[in-house]
Write a structure and sequence with these properties.
It is a single chain. By secondary structure, the chain is mainly β. It has one domain. The chain is about 10% helix and about 45% strand. Strand 2 and strand 3 (about 20) form a beta hairpin.
Length: about 120
C-alpha cells in the first residue's frame, strides 16, 4: 500500500486498511484512506506526548502558500475529485499537521499552530 517513506513513532496496519497507530502508546490516531496520492506528509501530536510522523519520499510539494481543506468529522476530502484522503481521530491527538497532494494534483497543507510548536520545543 505505501511507498518508501520516512517514519517516526508510527505503525501502519496492513490488514487494518491504513490504520495509523502510535508506537509509544499503541493508540489508533487515524487512517490513511487514499492509496494513490502523489505526496503525503502527516504529523500527529499524540496525547502520550509522542510526535508521530509519516512522509513519502516522492512528490514535489509547493510549501510557499497555504492550501486549505475542509475536515468534516475527522475526514479530509479532496475538493476537486471528492476522494477521501485521510481520517484523524481528534479524540486521540493533541494536534496535527499535514501536506498532501492528491492523485488529481490538488494539494493541501495545514501547519501546526505556533503554540503547539512551542510546547513541543519546551518538552523536547
Amino acid at each position: 500500500m505505501h511507498r518508501e517513506a520516512y517514519r517516526r513513532n508510527i505503525r501502519i496496519g496492513r490488514q487494518n486498511y491504513g490504520q495509523v497507530f502510535c508506537t509509544q502508546c499503541g493508540e489508533r490516531l487515524g487512517r490513511i484512506i487514499l492509496r494513490d496520492y502523489k505526496y503525503l506528509f502527516l504529523v500527529y501530536l499524540c496525547k502520550c506526548g509522542a510526535e508521530v510522523v509519516y512522509r513519502t519520499e516522492e512528490g514535489n510539494p509547493d510549501t510557499t502558500e497555504n492550501y486549505y481543506i475542509d475536515i468534516i468529522n475527522g475526514v479530509a476530502v479532496c475538493r476537486r475529485c471528492k476522494k477521501e484522503l485521510f481520517y484523524i481521530d481528534r479524540n486521540k491527538v493533541v494536534n496535527y499537521a499535514f501536506h498532501i497532494i492528491c492523485s488529481c494534483g490538488k494539494q493541501y497543507n495545514n501547519r501546526l499552530p505556533e503554540r503547539s510548536r512551542q510546547l513541543r520545543i519546551k518538552e523536547g
